[in-house]
Amino acid sequence: MKSALFYRLLPLLACLLLVLSGCGKKGPVKPLEKPLPAAPQKLTAVQQGDRFQVTWEIPKINQDGSPLTDLQGFRVYKMRYNPGDDCPECRDTSTLLLQVDLDFLKNAERRGDRMTIWDNVLQTGFGYQYRVTPYTQKEREGESAIVRRPFLPPLPSPRWQAASGHDRMARLSWLTPAIPATAELIGYNLYRLAPGEEPTSLPVNSPPLTETRHEDFGLQNDVTYSYSVRVIVRLNQTLVESEASQSIEVTPRAGQ
Q: Which of the listed residues 66, 110, 234, 241 has the most CB atoms within 10 Å of its CB?
């Protein structure tokens, strides 16, 4: 009887020994996957004339809070929707608008940790959603950030009134364009371009100028600068910039 019971319990004892000893068939050890990037920060979409300027900040951490060290770039997805729809996010029909590779920037601007792209394929009466998704060197996508904005009829641009160069300074003034009666005037953004510089998304001023004149100090004499200006309004609870004015050139000179 004891011998029979022993043989009946033998398989159970063998399994128990395998568990306790850690022996048995083992597969290859799988490496832990690296955590994925957190969402981009401060994503905005601002209408400038007939285009949207989409801006965000590069994330510094992964979703688990660890440092983000393998970020390769961003994929920007675009979706058109009806502003009268109560739930534009219920049916995501986004398509890839642009892939931004941080090593080979094309159709994008980087200033520090600030990324900017532009989109001018738009239609009045519709809204547009932009979803910005970071991806790693191994093509793995992280957490997305989303912004939605209606596209409104473009505003006319300001017109220059006067521009003159002085010692290391430019003195500028302009005229406010006609804006819709329902719009709230916020101010103006002034843009400057020096010889050899790439056009920039950043205005000279921050915050918006509230007067139709500005003195721009700290310039180099005998260098010709190009300026343009946009009016900013709040329309339908949305900030909108106008078309840019025509460029005007100013050359500061000593003694003027």
A: 241
Q: What are phi and psi of 157, to 5 degrees?
A: -90, 155
Token pair 């022993």 is found at 6
pLDDT of 94 above 90? yes
pLDDT digits (tens, 9 = 90+) for 20-59: 555 455 555 555 567 999 999 999 999 999 999 999 999 9
CATH of region 159-250, choose from 2.60.40.10, 3.20.20.10, 3.50.50.60, 2.60.120.200: 2.60.40.10
Question: How far is 54 from 151, CA to CA, in rounded Å?
Answer: 13
**DSSP state letter for 24:** S
d(CA 218, CA 214) in angstroms, rounded, equals 13
* SS3 call for 88: helix
pLDDT of the residue at 36:
96
Q: How far apart are CA 127 and CA 124, in angstroms?
A: 8
- Fold of the 41-150 domain: Immunoglobulin-like (2.60.40)
Q: Which of 152, 92, 102 is nearest to 127 (CA)?
A: 152
CA-CA distance, 9 to 23, in Å (whole number)?
Answer: 20
Alpha-carbon separation of residue 253 from 164, 168, 237, 256 (angstroms): 10, 7, 43, 6
